[in-house]
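User: Um, what's this?
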Amino acid sequence: MCKIKTLLILNIFLISLNVFAQSDIELDDFTLAQTAQAEIDLQSYELVKEELLSGSFSDSSLSVNIDKNLLIKVLGASAAAIVFFQNDQEIMDFVQDNQNDVTHVVSNIGEALAHPEYIAVGSYLLGVVLKDGKIKTMSMVMAKTAVISGLITQAIKMSVGRERPNQHHGPYEFHGASYPNEHVSFPSGHTTSAFAMATVIAETYKGESKMIPILAYSAAVVAGWSRVHDEAHWASDVVIGALIGHLTAKYIMRKFDQTDDGTRNRNSSIQIIPIAGFDFMGVNVHITERREVEVLDPYLF
């Protein structure tokens, strides 16, 4: 960087020489000054290009970290959503044709599990009674996650305008963006909330018990299935809602995924760093293995 600063100062000095040369020095001297400046400009360009390509400017570039495990989940959920989208009507018909007293009871339970306000408040009160700070913190994270994921889901709903199954016009009726918009099937807000809460619970207790994450995600699946059972959403709405809730919670929970010594386990990831110069552009790709990073504070933002 010192070299670059020195070259920039020399450029400014030579520009001053040019101004002086235009009025007071001979043509040969002026041509010599221009030649010297051109050579230094070329050196500056090559030095900047070398610095960019070597990654020295990576802190000022756009860096995108993609957790490989999350990438697999996103690709899997997207593929499932495409398959479900193509078969939404068949899935809906199957669920409706196989209803009985048991499915109605399970559906009612799933509906109750998709209300984050009740679960977050109930968890906080439980933490107060048990004097458990971990439960109280978890409940606050659940509330914030529910709000953020809910806003994302609502924005998509208003933009897409997909009709609900109970309107009986088929799965491919889209009306586009409008406000207010009564066609808000895609994605499922209840499923978003259910998976957001399940992810927070699973991430909080995954180091203590294997059953808690299984139970949490199972409850979220029941909540999503109940939306199809009740003809409130298509299956593809449920899959995308689950993905939004899960990814939002994972993002917020990153600062809480830490060990007792103040470090956080970070999974192996892919770092993509775009770089650009005067007449070139490219991408640096770094694959990092699982490591521990220091957590500066335990707060969300």
